[in-house]
Amino acid sequence: MRIPIVSRCWCCDTKVEETMTHLFLTAPIATRLWRQFAIFAGINIDGMHLQQLIITWWNHDAPTKLQVIYRVMPALIMWTLWKRRNTIKHGGNTTFTEMVSQIHELIRKVMKLLYPRIRLDRRDCPDFIAKIKEYKPKLYVHSVVWKPPVAQKLKCNTDGASRGNPGMCSFSFCIRDDRGDIRYARAKRIGITTNTEAEVLAIHEALEYNYCNDLMGITIETDSLSLKKMILNQWKVPWEIVERIEDIRQSLQQLDARIIHIFREGNTVADSLANEVIDTQYTTEYNNFQELPSNIRRLINMDKAQMPNLRIRNRHINTQSQEQ
């Protein structure tokens, strides 16, 4: 016969019943730790239960740069309290000062992950916050222009669109000549799958169309650098798309075609076509410029006029993958 015994609290000297609320909030050291970090955030924890406190941190009106920090703060505090509880249970101890230092270090690591180029010394939280508020990342701008194929050749841009990964997906491809005029375009919703599978299917269907219409020497252009590297045997291929990748490699050889990478900003026509059908149940096909939706016609005219789109990032933009 077993007698159930309520676990006693390891986090304080009162030896009361150990509950989640007591361990993570109402124990004296837990309350003190929450207050330590709630003060600088302007959060009043009086009268809150644990769930309320977590939601309050999550929904707190914080500057955009600090939203992630505010949202992970409850997890950092509770993790530190849990570690202290286990340390005491196994004969050790962790002081309040040590707990505060541990949380400061965790916050510093989170900030370093979010803003790798900012220099953060081992200081306390208010100093971190002040530094983040003042931080203005350097922006890198690259002009991206869709380039037509060489004379008497064709270029096929492909793209996959997804809402979630996995989620509802669609794909598209469009074929244009050396003047930038549309020869053929197709967009189709494919149901729930991953974005990688959507990108693969876009290239696979494009090559199949080119093969059926005897379009030799075509250039396939994708904004998925990882997929391009998989097709060229530079990256390992996930098992679920191995068969299609093998078919793509074979088709490229048969058509004397090549595959190159372009930034997403230069692939706007295929991207917009894929997003046009993601909420529909049908396949759309276009054989000339007049059949296209007005927003797609506008994008094609911009490409023909060689109007650039700007790619803006807070880190250096590697352009070596373009046209390779």
TrEMBL record:
GO molecular function: nucleic acid binding; RNA-DNA hybrid ribonuclease activity
A Pfam family: RVT_3
Superkingdom of this protein's organism: Eukaryota
Coiled-coil blocks: none
Domain RNase H type-1: 150-279
InterPro entries: RNase_H-like, RNase_H-like_dom_plant, RNaseH-like_sf, RNaseH_domain, RNaseH_sf, RVT-Znf
Listed PANTHER family: OS05G0353850 PROTEIN, RNASE H TYPE-1 DOMAIN-CONTAINING PROTEIN
The protein's name in its UniProt record: RNase H family protein
Organism: Solanum tuberosum (Potato)
